[in-house]
Amino acid sequence: MLSAEEAVLYDRQLRAFGASTQQLLSRSVVVIELRDQLFEELAKTCAILGFHTLICFGQQRNNAFDLRNLNRYCTVKVVDASSSVSTVLIEAVKYRATDTVYLLLASSSLYDDLHECVSSLGTAHSYPQPYFLSFTQEDPSMLQVSIDKKPDDSYTLSEYCEIEDMCFLADMLGYFLINILRSRADIDAEHTQQSSLHSCTLRRDGLFWKITNG
Protein backbone atom coordinates (compact mmCIF):
# COMPACT_ATOMS: atom_id res chain seq x y z
CA MET A 1 0.00 0.00 0.00
CA LEU A 2 1.48 3.35 -1.03
CA SER A 3 1.73 6.15 1.47
CA ALA A 4 0.23 9.52 0.53
CA GLU A 5 3.74 10.90 -0.12
CA GLU A 6 4.66 7.96 -2.36
CA ALA A 7 1.43 8.38 -4.30
CA VAL A 8 2.25 12.04 -4.93
CA LEU A 9 5.78 11.14 -6.08
CA TYR A 10 4.58 8.44 -8.48
CA ASP A 11 1.80 10.69 -9.76
CA ARG A 12 4.35 13.39 -10.61
CA GLN A 13 6.67 10.88 -12.29
CA LEU A 14 3.83 9.40 -14.34
CA ARG A 15 2.66 12.81 -15.48
CA ALA A 16 6.18 13.96 -16.36
CA PHE A 17 7.69 10.81 -17.89
CA GLY A 18 4.92 8.31 -18.72
CA ALA A 19 4.15 4.88 -17.25
CA SER A 20 6.87 2.83 -18.98
CA THR A 21 9.64 5.29 -18.12
CA GLN A 22 8.38 5.56 -14.53
CA GLN A 23 8.64 1.78 -14.14
CA LEU A 24 12.27 1.86 -15.29
CA LEU A 25 12.91 4.83 -13.02
CA SER A 26 11.66 2.79 -10.06
CA ARG A 27 14.23 0.04 -10.71
CA SER A 28 17.15 2.18 -11.84
CA VAL A 29 20.56 2.46 -10.20
CA VAL A 30 22.78 5.48 -10.84
CA VAL A 31 26.48 5.27 -9.96
CA ILE A 32 28.20 8.67 -9.89
CA GLU A 33 31.81 9.39 -9.07
CA LEU A 34 31.82 12.78 -7.33
CA ARG A 35 34.71 14.15 -9.37
CA ASP A 36 33.72 17.81 -9.13
CA GLN A 37 30.85 20.23 -8.56
CA LEU A 38 29.03 19.24 -11.76
CA PHE A 39 28.81 15.58 -10.79
CA GLU A 40 27.74 16.57 -7.28
CA GLU A 41 24.93 18.70 -8.71
CA LEU A 42 23.98 15.87 -11.07
CA ALA A 43 23.74 13.49 -8.10
CA LYS A 44 21.42 16.03 -6.47
CA THR A 45 19.29 16.15 -9.63
CA CYS A 46 19.05 12.34 -9.75
CA ALA A 47 17.91 12.16 -6.13
CA ILE A 48 15.23 14.80 -6.68
CA LEU A 49 13.98 13.16 -9.91
CA GLY A 50 13.44 9.92 -8.01
CA PHE A 51 15.87 7.37 -9.43
CA HIS A 52 15.52 4.34 -7.17
CA THR A 53 19.12 3.99 -5.98
CA LEU A 54 21.97 6.48 -6.14
CA ILE A 55 25.51 5.36 -5.29
CA CYS A 56 28.07 8.16 -4.98
CA PHE A 57 31.80 7.48 -4.78
CA GLY A 58 33.86 10.20 -3.14
CA GLN A 59 33.08 13.05 -0.77
CA GLN A 60 30.68 15.96 -1.08
CA ARG A 61 32.44 19.28 -1.49
CA ASN A 62 29.30 21.37 -1.09
CA ASN A 63 27.92 21.16 2.44
CA ALA A 64 24.81 23.22 1.66
CA PHE A 65 22.78 20.03 1.22
CA ASP A 66 23.01 16.35 2.14
CA LEU A 67 22.40 14.02 -0.79
CA ARG A 68 20.90 11.44 1.55
CA ASN A 69 18.14 13.77 2.72
CA LEU A 70 16.85 15.16 -0.58
CA ASN A 71 14.26 12.46 -1.31
CA ARG A 72 13.32 9.77 1.18
CA TYR A 73 12.19 7.50 -1.67
CA CYS A 74 15.59 7.58 -3.36
CA THR A 75 18.09 5.28 -1.64
CA VAL A 76 21.37 7.21 -1.53
CA LYS A 77 24.70 5.71 -0.55
CA VAL A 78 27.74 7.98 -0.30
CA VAL A 79 30.88 5.88 0.06
CA ASP A 80 34.59 6.59 0.21
CA ALA A 81 36.38 6.43 -3.12
CA SER A 82 38.72 3.79 -1.72
CA SER A 83 35.82 1.36 -1.22
CA SER A 84 35.34 -1.60 -3.54
CA VAL A 85 33.03 -0.64 -6.40
CA SER A 86 31.71 -4.18 -6.86
CA THR A 87 31.08 -4.73 -3.14
CA VAL A 88 29.05 -1.55 -2.76
CA LEU A 89 27.07 -2.11 -5.97
CA ILE A 90 26.23 -5.75 -5.24
CA GLU A 91 25.20 -4.87 -1.69
CA ALA A 92 22.90 -2.15 -3.00
CA VAL A 93 21.07 -4.37 -5.50
CA LYS A 94 21.23 -7.87 -4.00
CA TYR A 95 17.52 -7.86 -3.18
CA ARG A 96 16.52 -6.34 -6.53
CA ALA A 97 15.60 -7.81 -9.90
CA THR A 98 18.57 -8.27 -12.20
CA ASP A 99 16.85 -6.44 -15.07
CA THR A 100 17.67 -3.20 -13.30
CA VAL A 101 18.84 -0.30 -15.48
CA TYR A 102 22.31 0.96 -14.51
CA LEU A 103 23.47 4.47 -15.41
CA LEU A 104 27.21 4.61 -14.71
CA LEU A 105 29.07 7.91 -14.55
CA ALA A 106 32.63 7.22 -13.51
CA SER A 107 36.20 7.76 -14.67
CA SER A 108 38.15 5.14 -16.60
CA SER A 109 39.82 3.91 -13.39
CA LEU A 110 36.47 2.45 -12.26
CA TYR A 111 35.23 1.33 -15.66
CA ASP A 112 36.62 -2.23 -15.66
CA ASP A 113 35.38 -2.99 -12.14
CA LEU A 114 31.92 -1.62 -12.91
CA HIS A 115 31.69 -3.47 -16.22
CA GLU A 116 32.68 -6.79 -14.64
CA CYS A 117 30.38 -6.28 -11.66
CA VAL A 118 27.27 -5.37 -13.68
CA SER A 119 27.89 -8.23 -16.11
CA SER A 120 28.00 -10.68 -13.20
CA LEU A 121 24.51 -9.64 -12.06
CA GLY A 122 22.77 -11.23 -15.05
CA THR A 123 21.02 -14.62 -15.00
CA ALA A 124 19.63 -16.99 -17.60
CA HIS A 125 16.21 -15.35 -17.33
CA SER A 126 16.99 -11.68 -16.80
CA TYR A 127 19.82 -9.35 -17.58
CA PRO A 128 21.18 -6.00 -16.39
CA GLN A 129 20.92 -3.03 -18.70
CA PRO A 130 24.09 -0.94 -18.19
CA TYR A 131 24.78 2.43 -19.76
CA PHE A 132 28.30 3.78 -19.34
CA LEU A 133 28.41 7.53 -19.88
CA SER A 134 31.54 9.17 -21.27
CA PHE A 135 32.21 12.92 -21.02
CA THR A 136 34.49 14.55 -23.59
CA GLN A 137 35.37 18.11 -24.58
CA GLU A 138 36.68 19.91 -27.63
CA ASP A 139 36.69 23.35 -26.01
CA PRO A 140 35.51 25.04 -22.76
CA SER A 141 32.12 25.89 -24.30
CA MET A 142 31.14 22.33 -25.20
CA LEU A 143 30.57 19.05 -23.38
CA GLN A 144 29.60 15.87 -25.21
CA VAL A 145 28.02 12.95 -23.38
CA SER A 146 27.82 9.54 -25.04
CA ILE A 147 26.76 6.10 -23.86
CA ASP A 148 28.38 2.68 -24.08
CA LYS A 149 31.89 4.04 -24.45
CA LYS A 150 34.83 3.76 -22.10
CA PRO A 151 35.08 7.04 -20.15
CA ASP A 152 37.51 9.68 -21.39
CA ASP A 153 39.34 11.38 -18.51
CA SER A 154 40.08 14.54 -20.51
CA TYR A 155 36.96 16.21 -19.10
CA THR A 156 37.81 19.60 -17.50
CA LEU A 157 34.60 21.61 -17.88
CA SER A 158 34.37 22.49 -14.20
CA GLU A 159 37.47 24.66 -14.47
CA TYR A 160 35.56 27.10 -16.68
CA CYS A 161 32.08 27.16 -15.09
CA GLU A 162 30.44 29.11 -12.31
CA ILE A 163 28.14 27.36 -9.85
CA GLU A 164 25.08 28.64 -11.75
CA ASP A 165 26.37 26.90 -14.89
CA MET A 166 26.94 23.70 -12.94
CA CYS A 167 23.38 23.63 -11.62
CA PHE A 168 21.89 24.29 -15.06
CA LEU A 169 24.10 21.70 -16.76
CA ALA A 170 23.23 19.14 -14.07
CA ASP A 171 19.53 19.71 -14.72
CA MET A 172 20.00 19.16 -18.46
CA LEU A 173 22.08 16.02 -17.87
CA GLY A 174 19.33 14.72 -15.58
CA TYR A 175 16.91 15.27 -18.48
CA PHE A 176 19.29 13.27 -20.72
CA LEU A 177 19.34 10.38 -18.22
CA ILE A 178 15.54 10.35 -18.13
CA ASN A 179 15.51 10.22 -21.93
CA ILE A 180 17.85 7.22 -21.85
CA LEU A 181 15.20 5.46 -19.76
CA ARG A 182 12.46 6.61 -22.16
CA SER A 183 14.48 5.24 -25.08
CA ARG A 184 14.97 1.99 -23.16
CA ALA A 185 11.21 1.77 -22.54
CA ASP A 186 10.60 2.17 -26.28
CA ILE A 187 13.04 -0.68 -26.98
CA ASP A 188 11.19 -2.93 -24.52
CA ALA A 189 7.83 -2.04 -26.07
CA GLU A 190 9.02 -2.67 -29.62
CA HIS A 191 11.17 -5.73 -28.71
CA THR A 192 14.21 -4.32 -30.47
CA GLN A 193 17.84 -4.19 -29.36
CA GLN A 194 19.05 -0.89 -30.81
CA SER A 195 18.70 2.36 -28.88
CA SER A 196 17.99 5.52 -30.87
CA LEU A 197 19.60 7.69 -28.19
CA HIS A 198 23.41 7.57 -28.13
CA SER A 199 24.68 10.99 -27.14
CA CYS A 200 23.93 14.59 -26.41
CA THR A 201 25.94 17.78 -26.73
CA LEU A 202 25.84 20.67 -24.29
CA ARG A 203 27.08 23.87 -25.87
CA ARG A 204 27.29 27.43 -24.61
CA ASP A 205 25.41 29.94 -26.75
CA GLY A 206 26.01 33.40 -25.33
CA LEU A 207 24.87 33.41 -21.70
CA PHE A 208 23.02 30.11 -22.00
CA TRP A 209 23.71 26.43 -22.56
CA LYS A 210 21.77 24.40 -25.12
CA ILE A 211 21.36 20.65 -25.36
CA THR A 212 21.08 18.69 -28.59
CA ASN A 213 20.81 14.94 -29.15
CA GLY A 214 23.12 13.07 -31.47
TrEMBL record:
Domain of life per record: Eukaryota
Q: Which InterPro entries match?
A: Ub-E1_IAD_1
Q: In which pathway does it act?
A: Protein modification
Q: What is the designated name of this protein?
A: Uncharacterized protein
What is the native source organism of this protein? Giardia intestinalis (strain P15) (Giardia lamblia)
